[in-house]
Design goal:
single chain; alpha/beta; TIM Barrel; 8-stranded parallel beta barrel; 11 helices; 8 strands; binds SN-glycerol-3-phosphate
């Protein structure tokens, strides 16, 4: 399973990249706005770190605009995946971009039928937003289960990128279901490595080590 960071913060990405647990990055207009920096400058810096998969989102809402932005973004760096929203204009744009060899991440997916259409038009990734479904009283993980079942049944090559992840249990459940990728905030990725028993266990080992005669 691949682990992505859902952020546009270059310092957060650098930290996880250097540890060696990061497989990719997803950004969106909200995350880019938080950085207060120019979109393309941020994207170029992230790609320059060597991250092999960096999702950058179009903001046009019509197919022509999406195609224009998507073609530009894919030329920025070979690691770019073009993020396109799940609308009919987005489906049309995805089919064309995918036909040109561009890797598309279809975003803002909230139903299995939307995910089916994303696969049919050749999206490389589909991004179901599970946390936002949970927030409104629906089981987001149920959607991941449905999408995986459909994709497996028809052998669609589209990868399921679990997005809008809120906590480590989402990552655990996604991994158990066999989702391809989970993208998460920095704080969630940090928690994947942490356990209070690891900390207290290490503190005890170090304290006991002081009692071992040296030389
Ligand atoms: O990047 C898309 C998605 O992961 C956003 O998550 O937390 O804004 O629902 P969130």
């Amino acid at each position: 399973m691949q682990l992505f960071l859902d952020t546009a913060s270059v310092s957060e990405i650098r930290t996880m990249w250097e540890i060696g647990i990061l497989d990719g990055v997803t950004t969106n207009p909200t995350l880019v706005a938080k950085e207060g920096r120019k979109f393309e400058e941020v994207i170029r810096e992230i790609c320059a770190l060597g991250v092999p998969s960096v999702s950058a989102e179009v903001v046009a809402t019509d197919t022509e605009g999406m195609l224009r932005e998507g073609r530009h973004l894919r030329g920025v760096h070979p690691s770019i995946y073009v993020k396109v929203p799940m609308t009919t204009a987005g489906l049309r744009a995805t089919r064309i971009l995918a036909g040109e060899g561009t890797r598309v991440n279809m975003t803002l997916v909230f139903s299995a039928t939307q995910a089916l259409l994303a696969a049919k038009v050749g999206a490389t990734y589909v991004s179901p937003f599970i946390g936002r479904l949970d927030d409104q009283g629906q089981d987001g993980m149920e959607l991941i289960r449905d999408i995986l079942e459909i994709y497996r049944r028809y052998s669609f090559p589209t990868k399921v990128l679990v997005a809008s992840v809120r906590h480590p249990v989402h990552v655990l459940q996604a991994a158990k279901l066999g989702a391809d990728i989970a993208t998460m905030p920095y704080a969630v990725m940090e928690k994947l490595a942490a356990h209070p028993l690891t900390d207290s266990g290490l503190a005890r080992f170090l304290k006991d080590w002081e009692k071992v005669p040296k030389e």
